[in-house]
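Input/output pair, single chain:
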Amino acid sequence: MDTIVINNTKLKNMQLVSNTSSKVYTKGDKMYKILKGSKSSLGIAKKKIELVASLNLEDMEKPLTLIYSKDRFRGYVSRKIEGPTVDTFLDSLSLKQLYNLELLTLIYESITKVIIKGNKQGIVFPDLGTLDNFIITKAGCKYIDLMGLQVEKYGSKEYSSLLGNYGDLDKILNNRKYLIDKRLFSIELDKLSLIYLYFDLVFNISLANKKELGKERVISKLFREINLKDYDLMHKVWLLNQRDKPNEYILEDIKRIRDNYTLVNKGAKRVLQRK
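Output:
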């Protein structure tokens, strides 16, 4: 894979379309993703990205060229994808649209399908909750943060804020089912992150901040607060803190909730209401 150097002068002549955990620029039919504070060597980044590019993953944009500076990996160039990032799209919604459960479910479903396809090929997404890593297209979503992936022996140094601060992350990683070894995560982490993402996206609730989430009384209180009676989903939230039981995806659960509830405002909180 070819490599190029891009300096700040060249970037000024491009259009900045996203500026969060990384900067994404476009020019012509190309997209330039520049990582903030990247410390990866060019050699390691090249091997990791070439490995990801070799997989049959239509929901991830394949890099064309790597960007480097002073022998350090800075980012990569790929084909320009038409569409906003999920983060940008959500910011553009009106208050009424933010309570559109069908729309929020569709966004969540598109993200989940990308993750499940990757998981089936052994890829883990420690940074999946960073929503500027997903671009909304006519076909669904595309994932663009290839360095945020974990593939084979190549881990990720990026973690989603969904998982909380470092103290919260340490508590999660004390559960052995989330680790393959000290450096690598299991796909159980993605299943946890996807449940965290659903509660954040739909209810604006951080499960990372919920103490004793593994206790049934705490989960029951949480579900009462959002006015949801769904024992299957309650069980899957309970599984997150169990050491000897695998987690589960919630794709079918969220469709069931969409079909039976609407999302309403109650005392500045997002809660469900039976149809």
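The first strand starts at residue 2 and ends at 5. The chain has two domains: 2-79, 86-274.
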